[in-house]
Amino acid sequence: MKKKVHIAREKKKGQGTNRVEITGIVMILLGFFVCLSLGGYGMGIVGNLLRNGFYVLFGVASFGAALVLIFTGAVYVLTGHAPNMTRRLVFSLIAVWIILAGYHHHMLPAGSNFSVASFMTYGGMFCGIPVGIIRFLAGNIGTTIILTGLFVIDILLLTHWSVSNGAKKVGEQTEKRIGHVKARIREKQEAYHSARNAAENAGEQYNLTDFIFHKPTIKNIKKDDTEDLPVNVFSPADEKGKPVCGEATAPTVSENAQILLPEDNIDMLEGHKVCEENTNDIKINSKADMPEAEKNNFYSFPPLSLLKEGESSGSLETNAYGKANRLETTLKSFGVNAKIVHVSIGPAVTRYELEPAPGVRVSKIEGLSDDIALQLAATSIRIEAPIPGKSAVGIEIPNAKTAAVSLREVLSSNAFQKGKGKILVALGKDIAGKVVITDLAKMPHLLIAGQTGSGKSVCINTIITSILYHSLPEDVKLILIDPKVVELSIYNGIPHLRTEVVTEPKKAAGILNWAVTEMETRYRSFAEKNVRDINGFNKQNPEMKMPFIVVVIDELADLMMVAKDSVEDAICRLAQKARAAGIHLVVATQRPSVDVITGLIKANIPSRISFAVSSQVDSRTILDKAGAEKLLGKGDMLFNPSGASNPIRIQGAFISDEEVEAVVSYVKEQCIQQDVIVSDETKIDLSEWEPAVSSDSEEPKDELLAEASEWVVDTQRASVSALQRRFRIGYTRAGRLMDTMELMGIVSKADGAKPRTVLVSKGQLKELFPDQIEN
């Protein structure tokens, strides 16, 4: 019996559920029918009646009634029962609907409150009549105040929220926070007083700055999927001028997150060194505590106080996480799924390391560079795909504020102070803020290119100054070639110079030929002593020690215009063979075109530095790949050392003209104070090497010149084709003969299609060639 009753109840319950679902479906269909009717889709007589009736009664709020029908019907169908709504909730929702429709009707122009057209266009009779009466009695402003008050009251009834309770909770939370802050301040004060008392008892001084609150380096960090994102932050020198080469993380970054050096393969490059230790505790050396060779009696390294300290610029990139999120969103909008796994904040740019999802092509990310720059409002971006040694793609975005890297920061680092290289050169700081030092003796030659104002001259001054701070005059000699005359002339008089600064292009070709001869002489000495290079020779024969020679050419393009053949041949020979002889080249040019940086020069100078260039073609000329056209200028460079697969982005160290002058003056002054006179015997007599420079005016004259000139004067036919047929020579030689006759004044200049005119007689020609022309 009980079983039958249970079955009957289940059957009755199922019938009730079906009835509710049917009701819901009917409501949904009715709601769609009303929507289509209101939209004027031609739903017949019934649809037109509904449309006119709803518009007259409710106006534009009629669509709200249709949506309520659809929503209620969906609840009936999905839940199987009517929605559990209290009477107050229903009336509150209806009131909100009426008030919003009343707001809309309130926008009706004055004088048309009670017309049928206004009811259908605005709030309908249901809302329009009450609003029209209120508007007539209270005016426009009063109606707005009344409707707003009714809306606020209805919201309070609908949400059960109390203004007094809300204010009370806000006050409690504020008081609680203030109590926490007071407790922390009290703890700090107690710790400071106890530490100060202990220090006074011990006779020491205690610093209040050990107890101050430290602000985070990165602000505006959102807690999202990038919460544990490792960030490597570059910090400029602090107020004491000490370089910072360490790590800092945002407050929400995991403490166990590993801070990775963006260029993990840097340490593998020969002759390249990166400061990995924190340099906060490095003392700035003075002249008294700089290392000196025991046998050197006069030269002391310049003090670092001659160089300016780096200016602190605070946090360089305060919204790294925000840009990371925008970068991920931008890539996702183009169908590229990638996750940012590491952020490196450098002096000039911030690199975001992306880990693409499986199946994402690297070329697709590279093709979105312009779109990414647009979305992030960046001037230009550079994409390194992939990062060497990592399964990640690097996107480098310029910082809103660039921090200058002073040469003093780099020279005071442990990497430079304790470096054992023969010719250490300070370049600057990489994208992670790490000091970059390289040994010119292991490069072994360096090619520098970049457009005007990109930082080439500053880089050359940095290289020379690094040598003055690290190498003794007896260990390293300099040969400076400055066709621009004004760039390197300031170094005249320093003891490191092998000869005075060369400013004339023809003399520059001669000094390069001297360097070739010096290289050959050294190799013969190596062969006699049975050694392979300069290091072995100096170790075996300390009394005959040979210095390293660094040849610096400030503008190669000017030399190539004046004496291309001799300059190119000398540079190629030095680049091919001079490394073991201790002669190294530093060649700079502002025009990295193929007629200046020829294939022979590029093939023999493996290490390159490219500053900002104007086009991708110039970038490929200097680096054999694109990228330099995206650089920012002002010292932003790509350094591609010998053996590296990809170039390293560096913010070059800056040294001003005043600093260069101060360092050079110090070096010259100490030589004068120590009565050091550089012997003239060590200087190079350039006059002996000037004839080595080829010139068009010094070329030997063609043996046919006299005979050809005589034939031209006799026949009065001054043309290249006539010379070709008469003497059976090629066009090039015939053209050269005609040009020589023009220079000698025998024939006139070419005038388009008109023939040349013979300008001399047979007697005048005999005066030009007295021994070759007979009477």
Detailed description of the structure:
By secondary structure, the protein is α/β, with parallel strands linked by helices. It has five domains: 15-164, no CATH class; 165-211, no CATH class; 231-398, 2-Layer Sandwich (Threonyl-tRNA Synthetase, Chain A, domain 2), CATH 3.30.980; 446-692, P-loop containing nucleotide triphosphate hydrolases (Rossmann fold); 700-768, Winged helix-like DNA-binding domain superfamily/Winged helix DNA-binding domain (Arc Repressor Mutant, subunit A, Orthogonal Bundle). Helices cover 45% and strands 11% of the residues. The protein has 23 helices and 16 strands. The chain has helices spanning 2-38, 44-58, 62-79, 87-106, 116-121, 124-159, 163-202, 320-333, 362-366, 369-375, 407-411, 414-417, 456-470, 505-529, 534-540, 556-577, 599-604, 616-623, 657-673, 705-715, 720-727, 731-744, 762-768; strands spanning 231-233, 272-274, 338-345, 349-356, 382-384, 393-398, 405-406, 424-430, 435-439, 446-449, 476-481, 548-553, 583-589, 607-610, 636-640, 648-654. The strands form two sheets. Strands 2, 7, 8, 9, 10, 11, 12, 13, 14, 15 and 16 form an eleven-stranded mixed beta sheet that branches. Strands 1-3-4-6-5 form a five-stranded mixed beta sheet. A hairpin with an 8-residue loop joins strand 5 (382-384) and strand 6 (393-398). Helix 14 runs parallel beside helix 16. The N and C termini lie far apart (155 Å). Mean pLDDT is 74; it is low at 1-8, 203-227, 235-295, 676-681 and 691-698. InterPro entries: AAA+_ATPase (IPR003593), FtsK/SpoIIIE/SftA (IPR050206), FtsK_4TM (IPR025199), FtsK_alpha (IPR041027), FtsK_dom (IPR002543), Ftsk_gamma (IPR018541), P-loop_NTPase (IPR027417), WH-like_DNA-bd_sf (IPR036388). Its main location: membrane. Homohexamer. Forms a ring that surrounds DNA. One of its GO terms (biological process) is cell division. The chain crosses the membrane at residues 20-42, 54-77, 89-107, 119-138, 145-163.
